[in-house]
Amino acid sequence: MKSLIALVVALCAATLSAQVSETIDVRIINVDVTVTSKSGPVRGLTRDDFEIFEDGKLQPITNFYASDETRAVPAAAAPGAPSVGPALEQQDFRFRRKVLVLVDSSHAVRQYRDTALRELEAMITDRFHGDYQWSIGVIGSGISLVLPLSSDKQAIHEALESIRLSGARRGDAAVFADAVSTREGGSLTSNLSPQHPGPLDKNLAERSDQDRVEQAQTMDDAERVIAAKLTVPAYLDAVRGFASTSGRKIVLLLTGDPGLNDIDISPHDPGKGEFRNDRSTGPGATKVWQNQRTIEDLRRSIVHEANASDTSLYIWNVDRLTPKGDSRPATNTSALYWLARETGGRLVTGNDAAHAVQEFDTASSTFYSLGYSPKHADDGKYHAITVRMKRQGDYFLEYRTGYSDASTAVQLERAMKSPTAVAMQVSALPVTLAFGAPQTVSNEVTVPIEVAVPFRTLQFLPGKNGVAANVVIYVSVFDDMGKNVAASSFALTPGFKSGTPDPKGTLVYRNAIKLRGGERHRVVVAIRDTVTDNIGMATQVVRF
Fold first, then answer.
1. pLDDT in tens, 309-362
2. Is 379 helix (H, G, I), strand (E, B) or coil?
């Protein structure tokens, strides 16, 4: 049993329940749009050049921002020489990039993966100014976070190099010290069970060649579905970790073929000496369509989760990544193209790794952010987005095609179920986490926890009986593989009859968690001020 138990709240002053004055929540939906033409990125556009629709209805554009971070890093001056050239323009922090490089070691061949990583390191050296953030993660049996969001060039280089040197084999959940990893995670695995192909037909050799081909294809399909279902939860955890944060949020996925393409159901051409096998209507059609629907559900789940977190997928198919001019056949990237397209990202292809990295950098940094305020309140529904250009021209637009209308509270709850959240969130409140003396009964350990935040960082508003704040405490526990085993939230209204909170006081929340003895767990806590929507997080890895 791993459940949260009784709640106790202790304040450094009298606690009371207070009615807090109402606040007005103006919700802005931001849609980042990359506009390109045959000559490359299109710059110099204004809000009057765009139209944006939600569920087919035209929306007034209330917010507009143009970003263009693409520029070369100036050469270092000689020691002691004065700096030359104008200072770099600082981008608005609300729209700065947050890039999670996600290396899919389950599907990317190490040789090609390392070629891509070397080009990324070259880009960090030549083009990265330190004015946005990078995070590095690896998918093996789940997702392992090697580097939290950082602008430190040296730290980024060391993280990328550690992946190349370690190999990061599939199943290496603990390759990196204190890595955050997950084997399954997310809700997807609880309602989508693997479709096993079943035992081999003992009379297979006596059946017709066409029947044998059909059974072999069905088995291959089932294995591909199982492999995809083991990988997709890691993709979902990666994008959920960005929920409730601001900025240009990007997952740069380095992968091969994750098994998300449609099932091949078309008949073969007997004129080419192949068997005619219409799998859509044959005796095994039921299994074929079940596998196809599962693949479609997996793809849609990735798109919806990414769009709900406003995270774009830039997918780099590194399979067969060789020097420019190599004529080896390319892998099928139709599913990867669709995932990137629907989330406002791009499929980065081609055998020229240097060109691919430059394409990613330019496309992800040159964009327009359009904001509008939906007429409806937070309804939790998924809404379709369409963006059009008013001016005439041969333009290509990349943007997320929908979003889930969820409040900050709901977004934070989504993030708290991802093992990467604590590394992706910007902590605006100074939250601390401490543990008390554990008590062990059999193999179950009850551990007291204490979460604290200074009064001065919270917003207290006048009510009928003084002043009070409205905060929500979130507690999540992850096992050694990163699977979320407990997630709860508690609303508090600390108040003061005196009308003035003690600026030196502290809000202290006490609870307890039950863990399995001897196992490693990560405990993540968050506090959200519901008035300001400021969030603070803290985490520790424990073993009792």
1. 999 999 998 887 655 545 455 568 899 999 999 999 999 876 788 888 999 999
2. coil
Which strand ranges, in their side-by-side order, compose the sheet holding 133-139?
Answer: 143-150, 133-139, 97-104, 248-255, 311-317, 346-348
Would residue 350 be called left, alpha or beta, if left means φ above 0 and alpha means ψ between -120 and 50 degrees? left
CATH code linked to domain 8-24+427-543? 2.60.40.3880
Q: What's the CATH code, domain 38-71+91-185+210-264+278-416? A: 3.40.50.410
> Dihedral, CA atoms, 518, 171, 146, 183, nearest 10 degrees?
-70
Strand partners, 440: 445
Tokens of 338: 């669709």
* CA 305 – CA 418 distance, rounded (Å): 12
Tokens coding 54: 């939600």
pLDDT(11) > 90? no
pLDDT value, residue 194: 34
- The helix (run of H) or strand (run of E) holding residue 412 is helix 408-415
| Residues facing 370 on adjacent strands | 31, 64
Secondary structure class of 139 (helix, strand, coil): strand
How far apart are the C-alpha atoms of 412 and 421, rounded to whole Å?
9
Angle at 349 between CA 335 and CA 366, to 5 degrees: 100
Q: Taking the mean position of all CA atoms in its chain, how far away is CA 95?
A: 17
3-state DSSP assignment of residue 276: coil
Q: How many residues does the chain have?
A: 544
Question: Which 3 state secondary structure label does DSSP give 343?
Answer: strand
pLDDT tens-place string over residues 38-56? 888 999 999 999 999 999 9
d(CA 532, CA 286): 53
* Residue 516 burial (C-beta neighbours within 10 Å; 0-12, 13-18, 19+): middle
At residue 296, the pLDDT reads: 94
Query: Per mean pLDDT, which range of 159-168, 175-184, 273-282, 414-423 is the poorest?
Result: 175-184
Instruction: Report which residue type is found at 531.
Output: V
Specify the pLDDT at position 390: 95
**How much is the pLDDT for 330?**
58
CB contact at 8 A, 144 and 172: yes
Separation between Cα atoms, residue 302 and residue 448, nearest integer Å: 37
pTM more than 0.85: no
Distance of CA 413 to the CA centre of its chain: 14
The alpha-carbon radius of gyration of the chain (Å, integer) is 26
DSSP 37: E
Q: Where do the domains of the chain lie?
A: 8-24+427-543, 38-71+91-185+210-264+278-416
CA 288 – CA 502 distance, rounded (Å):
66
pLDDT for residue 282 = 59
Q: What's the confidence (pLDDT) of residue 160?
A: 93
